[in-house]
From TrEMBL, chain B:
<feature type="region of interest" description="Disordered">
    <location>
        <begin position="162"/>
        <end position="186"/>
    </location>
</feature>
<feature type="compositionally biased region" description="Polar residues">
    <location>
        <begin position="162"/>
        <end position="175"/>
    </location>
</feature>
<protein>
    <submittedName>
        <fullName>Uncharacterized protein</fullName>
    </submittedName>
</protein>
<feature type="compositionally biased region" description="Acidic residues">
    <location>
        <begin position="177"/>
        <end position="186"/>
    </location>
</feature>
Length: 794, 186
């Protein structure tokens, strides 16, 4: 009993003693990323509150001993919460994540301003949704300086400042797409419904995505998911009159407060034969379906995600475009209209393309207190492309091209951020396996090859002051092709035997098997400045040099390209393409009416080793006489200007205008470059109301001028008609006339979560042809199109 | 951290190991040119003189001989379209098998040659004769005389009676030329 009393007394003593003891709790609050001290952060210990001073310091005197919940808050940051036991003087160093607020604001407002010196334009969520039935190439054409290279209307590739194909990187959720992009009639395998915003980087400054992107990059980003317990998503249904088809798409994501998420989505689109003014074109339908699934945990300190996306596209190719030789071309011109007209059908028959693309990705990241952020990504891509021609007999069932491309890619990136500067470095490695299936019984357009890639880059950004930022980056890439290719003995001996005897493997029946192994060392660099003297003006200046490894078509092409009726020849001796780029962007805000926003972007590109196709001769076969176009390296120069302005006339009425023009020249042959985008002028007026919610009406005009600068690529034809021999020049070079189009759209929320959008493209059913449509000889562009979209958000 | 590093290295290593080529197993087989008509054989026999047989072989658009045609005579002409296989050629059955997708047109120049599609020529379902077997009547010819022969695959429309039922040179619209050769006739 006495013992218990004593113990109790002692304990009480301790309690009383401790209760009277107070301690100092002091410390600092700083930004996790760049370690800057945060002023005016609020620190709360129990009921005690203190604010940090300019140096981020706080102190509490006389905190009674005990256990408290500590909360640190700062504007635009996540709260920091911790349980602290105060039983002595404490010094705490608290770090807060400063950037969460930035990201969420950006997504909500839909504009994506980059603080860097990279010249970038963004297609935001609204624009994507209003045009969600379009393919990527046609959608991106809404950005000034960007157009589409088309083969018919279903197949459309983005062209940035005159450059396309292998010169543009398409980055899909962080994965650079490997999809035989060298082909002019190979459309990107992308479903625009999967993305919330699309950034277009103009020019070669995006070193992070590899060195090949000398023309620019298209960066497709899905939505940033919120960090709370919720399910969100949407379902869209569209009806499309041109093609009498439609599209259905659905997206859903479940997120949790503990930052786990699961996301999935899919879409299906079906179109029948295309409508041109007064007719339909046979076999111009399309069928596309896609699916994506991802899950992961995006915590602040570390996170990972696993994702899969797959797309399947089937396109009919207009039969009238499938010709045997250039005399057939002449007959098309003479006939004056497309051959296979009317008799609308949903069927897609030969000639057609069937392409499948799958991407599987694993990425993970971890932030270290002083070491920065380390990110790892591994991606696997499978592309299967089958092209069907009109063939004789049983061969008609077989594709004339069946390419299976597997690409593995891994990268490790390190990001270090401090108050005034940041350093981002990375290592990457890739392996690609291209397999042209011989079961086609048609000669391979490009051969079997393995391609090995390895690269390292580093980008340093420095903030001189609140008005001036600069960035400098460098990159090295190594690429190796290891191919097996067959040549006709005659061609091998004439062109390559003496230069590359080491590639010879064996000769059988006047066919030579070779194993070319070609290495490339590429160096790329960029230097950029961003000057923002006040809130009304911003200037960006960017210089870049990029080396591009030649693509398989440029090296190995060997044969008749049917739809173009030309024989294409690659060259093993082609070296890497070195491109120099300068880009200036001037942005200004002026106090005119309710606000005027102007952006002007002049640019300049020059290269001494630009890889280009040039006619070099003719070849005779039983099918006729064909021009031969060889890949050569020339001196090329492209310069131009993009200008955009937005004038807010009233609070709810705005006018947008944009103009682009460029001039491209082959300085080696002293002639213009082929397929250079004609100058164009776009205007749009948009009126908004608050009732009904999100109501808008928009009227658009697009005027495209005639391209007067083009190389002469006419062909001389010898043919016999009505008992006489003729020699005629076939004009394949002259671009089509200028044209002007009007579009309109209107939309509003019908109910709380239901939005209706109605769009008419080519209101007046204008008949026109586009220079950058390779099938313009055979068919005009689409006629009028009505698109209705119902979207339900949940 | 170290674990992450090790996993990364392991992954990269796996990628490269799996991707290494293992020699002879990978050599792809060559593909023969199945779609192209590598050789066209035109055989003319003088109806008045069975010993007067002329054969012209056309490879790569180049004929290995020219035709010697006598004014006033009529010749039976037979066309044989051949596919190259290794180093030899074999006749294609597919033109006859797919008769409704093929048609042959003739076009003489600097020569007055009347063409009639033979009685034993292959007849398409639409009643037009393909033109594999024809009869050429030589009204006149010169040193610059030529005959153009086209094999059209999948034309949208054909007319054997062009310019007339008594001169069946033939006419088509649409489709693609699988063969377009010209042979000298003098």
């Amino acid at each position: 009993m006495k013992l218990i009393y004593s113990v109790l007394l002692i304990l009480c003593g301790f309690a009383i003693t401790n209760a009277q003891k107070t301690y100092t709790v002091a410390g600092t609050v700083q930004d996790f990323h760049d370690k800057t001290m945060l002023e005016n952060a609020v620190v709360k210990i129990g009921d005690f509150i203190a604010n940090t001073n300019k140096k981020g310091e706080f102190s509490f005197k006389n905190i009674p001993a005990g256990n408290y919940q500590l909360i640190a808050k700062h504007a635009l940051c996540d709260d920091y919460t911790e349980n602290v036991g105060v039983n002595r003087d404490l010094h705490l160093a608290i770090t807060l994540e400063h950037h969460t607020g930035d990201i969420e604001t950006v997504t909500i407002h839909g504009s994506h301003k980059t603080k860097g010196s990279v010249i970038m334009r963004t297609l935001d969520k609204t624009e994507i949704e209003r045009n969600s039935t379009e393919n990527l190439g046609n959608l991106l054409s809404k950005i000034s300086g960007v157009t589409a290279l088309k083969t018919g209307n279903n197949i459309s590739k983005p062209v940035i400042h005159g450059l396309y194909g292998s010169r543009i990187a398409i980055v899909n959720n962080g994965v650079k797409m490997a999809e035989q992009e060298w082909g002019v009639e190979h459309a990107p395998n992308v479903d625009v419904n999967d993305f919330e915003h699309i950034d277009v980087v103009k020019g070669a400054s995006a070193l992070k995505y590899g060195s090949d992107a000398v023309g620019g990059a298209v960066v497709l980003e899905p939505a940033v998911l919120p960090k709370r317990d919720t399910i969100m998503g949407n379902i869209k249904l569209s009806g499309i009159s041109n093609g009498r088809g439609g599209e259905i798409s659905a997206n859903a994501a479940k997120t949790w407060t503990n930052q786990w998420f699961v996301k999935t989505g899919g879409s299906y689109k079906k179109l029948g034969d295309l409508y041109i003014p007064h007719h339909t074109l046979q076999n111009t339908g399309a069928e596309i379906n896609s699916f994506n699934f991802s899950f992961g945990n995006h915590g602040f300190m570390q996170g990972f995600d696993v994702s899969y996306s797959g797309i399947n596209q089937e396109f009919g190719i207009f039969k009238g475009a499938h010709l045997g030789n250039n005399v057939d071309f002449r007959n098309v011109f003479k006939f004056g209209q497309p051959y296979y007209l009317d008799n609308f059908s949903y069927d897609i028959v030969n000639p057609k393309q069937e392409v499948e693309h799958h991407i599987a990705k694993l990425s993970a990241y971890k932030r270290f207190e002083n070491f920065g952020k380390l990110s790892f990504q591994y991606s696997f891509q499978l592309n299967r492309r089958k092209e069907f021609d009109i063939r004789r007999g049983e061969l008609n069932e077989l594709p004339s091209m069946d390419l299976r491309l597997i690409t593995h890619s891994a990268s490790l990136t390190h990001l270090l951020e401090r108050g005034n500067w940041s350093l981002e470095s990375g290592l990457s490695a890739g392996f690609q396996d291209n397999y042209p299936n011989p079961a086609t019984k048609a000669r391979r357009l490009i051969p079997d090859y393995y391609k090995y890639d390895a690269g390292a880059f580093s980008v340093f950004k420095y903030k001189f002051s609140s008005t001036l930022n600069a960035e400098a980056g460098a990159r090295y890439d190594f690429s190796r092709y290891d191919a097996y290719k067959y040549y006709d003995a005659k061609d091998w001996n004439e062109k390559f035997a003496s230069r590359y005897p080491q590639f010879f493997v064996q000769e059988v029946d006047s066919r030579i098997l070779t194993r070319p192994i070609l290495d490339y060392h590429n160096f790329s660099a960029n230097l950029g400045f961003n000057y923002k003297p006040d809130n009304n003006f911003e200037f960006k200046l960017n210089f870049a040099r990029a080396d591009r490894t030649p693509n398989p078509a440029e090296l190995f092409s060997d044969g008749l390209h049917h739809s173009a009726a030309i024989i294409e020849e690659g060259d093993l001796s082609i070296q890497k393409e070195t491109v120099y780029n300068a880009n200036l962007s001037m942005i200004g805000k002026f106090n005119v009416l309710k606000g005027l926003h102007v952006e002007v972007n002049p640019y300049y590109m020059i290269s001494d080793s630009f890889i280009n196709q040039v006619p070099t001769g003719i070849e005779s076969s039983n099918r006729g006489v064909f021009p031969v176009w060889s890949y050569q390296q020339i001196k090329a120069r492209i310069f131009g200007i993009d200008a955009d302005a937005e004038l807010n006339i009233l609070d709810n009425l705005k006018w947008n205008t944009s103009f682009s023009a460029l001039k491209g020249d082959d300085l080696t042959h002293d002639e213009p470059l082929i397929l250079m985008m004609p100058a164009n002028l776009r205007n749009a007026v948009e009126f908004k109301l608050n009732i009904p919610k999100n109501f808008y009406v928009r009227l658009e005009n697009e005027s495209v001028f005639r391209q007067k600068r083009f190389p002469i690529r006419n062909q001389n034809l010898d043919f016999i008609e009505d008992g006489t021999t003729f020699n005629e020049e076939l004009d394949l070079s002259t671009p089509p006339s200028a044209y002007t189009l009007f579009n309109a759209s209107v939309g509003a929320d019908l109910f709380k979560n239901l939005n209706l959008n109605f769009r008419i493209n080519n209101i007046f059913n204008t008949e026109y042809r586009e220079y950058l449509n390779r099938l313009r000889y055979f068919m005009p562009e689409s006629g009028r199109n009505f698109i209705v979209t119902l979207k339900y958000n949940f | 951290m170290k674990k992450l590093f090790n996993i990364t290295l392991l992954l990269l290593a796996t990628v490269f190991i799996l991707s290494c080529r293992n020699g002879d197993d990978d050599i792809p087989e060559d593909i023969h040119e199945h779609d192209e008509i590598g050789k066209v054989v035109l055989t003319l026999t003088n109806k008045a003189d069975a010993a007067d047989i002329q054969t012209v072989n056309v490879i790569g658009g180049v004929a290995d001989a020219h035709l010697h045609l006598h004014q006033g005579d009529t010749y039976t002409a037979v066309l044989d379209f051949q596919i190259k296989h290794d180093d030899h050629y074999h006749s294609s059955d597919e033109i006859v098998e797919e008769k409704d997708h093929h048609f042959i047109t003739f076009a003489p120049a600097n020569a007055d040659i009347v063409v009639l599609r033979a009685a034993n020529d292959i007849v398409r379902t639409d009643g037009n004769k393909i033109g594999l077997k024809t009869e050429w009547t030589i009204n006149s010819t010169q040193s610059t005389g030529k005959m153009n022969i086209k094999l059209i695959h999948a034309p949208t429309s054909v007319n054997q009676n062009y310019p007339s039922a008594t001169n069946q040179l033939g006419q088509t619209q649409g489709g693609e030329s699988d063969v377009d050769i010209t042979v000298d006739t003098h």
